[in-house]
Amino acid sequence: MITVENVSKSFPGNGTPVTALRDVSLAVDAGALYGVVGPAGAGKSTLARCVALQERPDRGVVRYDGLNTTRLDGRKLRDTRRQVAVVDTRLRDERTVAGNVALPLELGGVDGPQRRNRVGTLLDLIGLTQRAGDRPESLTPGQRRRVAVARALAAAPSVLLADDPTRGVDAEESGALLTVLDRARAELGTTVVLTTPDASVARRVCDDVALLERGTVVESGKLLDLLVKP
Ligand code: ADP
Ligand code: ADP
């Protein structure tokens, strides 16, 4: 369970500070697929970075299972950060698809057979088992994005954070990508947080959503409840 409590964040900007987040609160249940929806500039990426512990709020608190992360540093911060993986869309073109997915495992010192096993599970999850030995550049944009998701999942994070995952991916491939996020939640038990400017993306897979406008949560809750509201 992650809670964001009254988080505010500003950036210096050119002369006048820009308020990216203003008193934002939300709660992400363990095992949920949570969507943060809002237009460009609403503060989605800033919120995602705060949740991923890459950015410290100016005010307010981010809690992981009750633990206040705001004042953590050094080893404790690194340990807590390890629970969350952010999807990084930049793949290593000199490595194979499997090699990209295996990267966090190699860095984590996971041994060969175990690595192979885990990579195999993840390639199956993303539907790219047949492409294990291919270079990422031979894949479509949507397939590449799925490889990026698999790599983020490799070290078995409890939380997966995907900032605008379908950006630059066409409608058909977006469906396959969202299915992968849904499978991560259903089959691996990963809590997934995604941001998107596209309400239809959230509608397709999210259980819970927060609508963000100009740094403020204007609505949040179960997607179904929000949809039936007048
Ligand atoms: P979104 O992801 O919804 O498009 P962002 O979180 O990227 O929104 O940005 C929210 C606001 O904060 C925007 O006005 C943006 O220009 C500003 N902003 C975000 N990050 C920075 C930064 N590192 N420095 C200055 N301004 C920033
Ligand atoms: P690279 O050439 O990019 O280094 P490799 O193909 O040699 O990549 O594989 C890198 C990692 O991926 C290794 O840990 C290997 O065990 C694993 N791996 C390679 N192919 C597969 C596969 N088909 N299924 C599961 N894991 C694989």
UniProtKB/TrEMBL annotation:
GO biological process terms on file: amino acid transport
Keyword field contains Transport: yes
Entry keyword Cell membrane: no
A GO MF label: ATP binding
Ranges in a coiled coil: none
Domain of life, per lineage: Bacteria
Keyword field: Amino-acid transport, ATP-binding, Nucleotide-binding, Transport
Domain ABC transporter: 2-230
GO cellular component, one term: plasma membrane
Protein name: D-methionine transport system ATP-binding protein
Source organism of the structure: Prauserella shujinwangii
